[in-house]
Inverse folding.
């Protein structure tokens, strides 16, 4: 049996970080995928994660893990495929390091990605977004922190990894505004300048944040950096609380990416320019941003005003029979 720990460490620290020069966000995403996988394998096999072996991660277990993502964690097909991509990348890495497991590795590599539907982007209405922003208690330290995190997620459209990874030295103030140096996916950094109201919220959190051993802007209750899972938990809690004042949130799945989508649509409706949305969100390709065009009502109205449809030949229907005419009223 082959201990998996040395291989996963080499994959994350050597293959991704050194050989591939992957960005910190990519490495964090892959590490999170394996955290989920090993937690699942540990529960299923009833062994601690540190006792797992490479031979335990076979095709049947990976398939069960992917199903668990979609059922228990309620992840969509895109997230499922992203986790599978991380697993396959690791299997490619170890196929030359552990030749004895080659057949098992090939079976994992043969697992197909799931086809995804191109659905309308899930987002919040103005009323729903305001209800969530109003949910934290602004009179407590943690309430100030949570309100600031939610506010940045909605106004800056940050990915959850960008939000929790934001450092103190990446936040600066210019007159009434706040500037954020955002480290995006694929080493694609961007600078965002946000409004006075956002600046005031960030200043309020900094006033009560206190000293910490970590450089991240947002801290959890233990005084260390906030995690992705931690923010997702907080968002779920406040979304449930917001249902009391906004019943339309009931049954609606509110994830950090829903807040990002909400920001994107707000920008698109304000500017009418999908390129500006792509720059604001830090999209690698504008094709990703074009998904918002299928949702934005403002764009549809613009088409109605600018395009004249062809005209139909006028005519009036005449019933062929008196009885039919009478039934037609």
């Amino acid at each position: 049996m082959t201990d998996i720990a040395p291989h996963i460490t080499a994959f994350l620290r050597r293959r991704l970080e050194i050989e591939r020069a992957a960005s910190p966000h990519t490495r964090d995403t892959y590490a999170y995928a394996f955290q989920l996988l090993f937690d699942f394998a540990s529960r299923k096999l009833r062994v601690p994660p540190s006792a797992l072996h490479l031979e335990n991660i076979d095709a049947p277990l990976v398939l069960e893990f992917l199903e668990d993502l979609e059922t228990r964690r309620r992840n969509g097909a895109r997230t499922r495929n992203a986790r599978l991509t991380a697993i396959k990348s690791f299997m490619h890495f170890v196929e030359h390091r552990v030749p004895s497991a080659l057949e098992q590795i090939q079976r994992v590599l043969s697992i197909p990605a799931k086809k995804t539907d191109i659905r309308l982007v899930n987002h919040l209405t103005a009323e729903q977004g305001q209800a969530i922003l109003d949910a934290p208690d602004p009179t407590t330290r943690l309430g100030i922190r949570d309100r600031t995190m939610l506010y940045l997620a909605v106004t800056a459209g940050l990915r959850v990894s960008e939000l929790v990874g934001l450092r103190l030295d990446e936040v600066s103030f210019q007159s009434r505004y706040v500037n954020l140096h955002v480290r995006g996916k694929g080493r694609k950094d961007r600078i965002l300048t946000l409004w006075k109201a956002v600046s005031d919220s960030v200043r309020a959190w900094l006033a009560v944040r206190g000293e910490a051993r970590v450089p991240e802007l947002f801290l959890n209750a233990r005084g260390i950096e906030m995690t992705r899972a931690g923010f997702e938990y907080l968002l779920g809690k406040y979304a449930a609380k917001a249902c009391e004042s906004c019943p339309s949130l009931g049954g609606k799945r509110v994830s950090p990416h829903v807040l990002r989508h909400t920001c994107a649509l707000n920008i698109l409706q304000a500017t009418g320019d999908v390129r500006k949305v792509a720059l604001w969100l830090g999209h690698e390709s504008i094709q990703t941003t074009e998904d918002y065009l299928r949702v934005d009502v403002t764009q549809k109205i613009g088409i109605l005003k600018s395009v004249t449809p062809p005209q139909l030949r006028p005519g009036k229907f005449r019933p062929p029979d008196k009885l039919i005419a009478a039934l037609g009223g």
In short: The first strand starts at residue 171 and ends at 174. The domain at 126-302 is CATH 1.10.443.10 (hpI Integrase; Chain A).
